[in-house]
Specification:
The protein is of the alpha/beta class. 43% of the residues lie in helices and 14% in strands. α5 packs parallel to α6. The longest helix has 19 residues. It starts with a helix and ends in a 5-residue tail after the last strand.
Length: 252
């Protein structure tokens, strides 16, 4: 078992938990640790327009590999004006809605503890959604056990989890400038563009929307040369959805 003593203690004290699951490195390790500790654990995934389809597919795959039951729920995030209007604290409103729904689902299954994968490195100043976690009584065992992102990746690799080196992936709404009203069409275009780039072999990327209709591609430094070589392919894939396509050379 690849866990810290503090995490072991949490699972001993809480043998039945629900986990807000994203399919990322943090929540995947939390599921693994809970399952390994013998917990009665169930994962819950909320799918809205703000998450690309591949995240749901990954969540289903990972939960299946871990032998953990997964509940998937779908809701319309953009029906909430506080989310669609995209204010500075949009993440707080969105996370609040998601967590309230997760609590409903978890309680219906007999759970009284809802956990998430927030780790020790996550800072509330950078993540407005952490306020929602606190207000709605969601427990963050990795953070409480003082486990860092690097620790999660290290222990995940030791445990043989495919997520040990999985890049972090923020929701599609983060590609749209604060204050710009989010529409379904914007999200679909961004998801389609990123999917096209993934299929070309690029990774750990972002396609940001610069209103009214410019795509700004952000790639790791090591992939910039490949992007230049595939310029024609990139333009062919993205130009039908965007008036112009540019490569951000200052991103990372």
């Amino acid at each position: 078992m690849v866990k810290t003593l503090e995490l072991d203690d949490f699972f001993k004290e809480n043998p039945k938990i629900a986990v807000a699951f994203s399919g990322g490195a943090d929540s995947s390790y939390l599921l693994y640790a809970a399952k390994t500790a013998g917990c009665d654990v169930r994962a819950y995934f909320i799918k809205s327009q703000l998450q690309p389809r591949f995240e749901l597919n990954e969540a289903v795959r990972i939960a299946g590999c871990l032998g953990v039951s997964l509940t998937v729920d779908v809701f319309d995030a953009l029906e909430d004006a506080d989310v669609a209007n995209n204010p500075q604290n949009r993440c707080y409103y969105c996370k609040t809605r998601m967590l309230k729904r997760l609590w409903q689902l978890a309680r219906a299954d007999g759970h009284s503890i809802l956990c998430d994968g927030t780790n020790m490195d996550d800072e509330e100043s950078d993540r407005p959604g952490m306020r929602a976690l606190r207000e709605l009584g969601v427990v963050s065992p990795l953070r409480e056990s003082k486990i860092t992102k690097a620790g999660i990746r290290r222990m995940s690799e030791q445990a043989g989890l495919s997520t040990h080196n999985k890049p972090s992936y923020a929701c599609l709404a983060t590609r749209i400038p604060t204050g710009t009203v989010i529409t379904l069409r914007m999200l679909e275009k961004i998801e389609s563009a990123e999917e096209a780039l993934f299929e070309m072999g690029f990774s750990d990327l972002r396609v940001r929307l610069e209103p009214p209709d410019k795509a700004v591609i952000q790639l790791p430094d090591g992939q910039l040369e490949a992007a230049a070589a595939k310029r024609a392919d990139i333009l062919t894939a993205l130009k039908p959805c965007f008036s112009s396509v540019v490569l951000d050379l200052t991103a990372r």
